[in-house]
Amino acid sequence: MRFVVRLFFGAVAGTLLLLTAAGTANAQYTSSVGLKPSSGKAGSSFTISWNFYPCKGPVTFSWNGTPMWSANTTLQQTSGTVAATVPAGAQPGTYPVTGTCTNARTGGPLSAGSRFTVTATPTTTPPPPVTTTPPPPVTTRPTRPGPATVPATPVTTTTPPPTPSTPPTSTTPPATPGTPTTSSTVPKPGELVLDRPSIKPGEPLSASGKGCLPSRMVTLTSGGAEVGTAFTDNSGAFTAPIEFTRIEAGRHTVVAECGVRLTGAVDQVVTRSSGGQTGTLAVLVFFVLASITVIRFR
Fold it and tell me: Which residue of 187, 201, 255, 281 has the smallest Cβ count within 10 Å?
């Protein structure tokens, strides 16, 4: 009876020992597959990490049942990584990625897997066209024309050619005493020139100046009264007629205001006829007195 009990307990202990050894051996078998990243669009890249023991030969990885990648493994190298690419034609959805190798102890397969999600390609909507509002029309006011430019009168001096046999003669008649002569002197910059040194009432008089601002109105005054106006040309020169409003004997100063101040002078000569009338009156008085004397002595 004791032998039977001992045999029973020995069988139980042996069974437990075998179960423990088998559990320990099975526990040493490891197989896993990881994906990084685990989602992406078709054609994108990802990495497969694996751990298989004990393996003999390469590990083969498949996409949705189709072998596509592989990695080498040995009993010393039980884990590693392999680069992979999502098939270009994969439609959006979740697909299994499985790794398989041969068990070095049993000769059977060792496998593990994970799942990869293919995302849809985002649709890019073009931005709406930008409508540009044209600027309001710009109304340009017409430019007011500036003062007209009076060109300076050119001074032409004609010199007769000399005759070899006859000495040159002057065609200018001698000046009559008491008659003012005209001057054709061209003014220098900053100078006002009058064409006559003296005038009688009613005779024409012209003033020429140079050194003014270009395209500027010129006002000529004498004694505070305006006696003429003109416009300067592009060189700042001008010529203007002078007309005195008052008849006064003596020297008159003419001032030209044209951005600068130019001055000139002219003498005004006034002829008096009172002397002839006085002589005639004296002769008449003499004859009247003579007639009275004759009549008285008769």
Answer: 281
Helix (H) or strand (E) holding 286: helix 274-297
Residue 210 has pLDDT above 70, yes or no: yes
**What is the domain extent for residue 61?**
29-119
pTM: 0.36
The CATH code of the domain that includes 107 is 2.70.50.50
Beta strand 198-199 with 217-222: parallel, antiparallel or unpaired? Answer: unpaired
Averaged pLDDT, 130-152? 63
Task: Give 259's pLDDT tier (boundaries 50, 70, 90).
Answer: confident
Helix or strand or coil: residue 280? helix
Domain boundary among 102, 119, 136: 119
Is residue 54 a contact partner of residue 103, using CB atoms and an 8 Å limit? yes
Give Cα 137 to chain centroid, integer Å.
21
Does 185 fall in a domain?
Answer: no
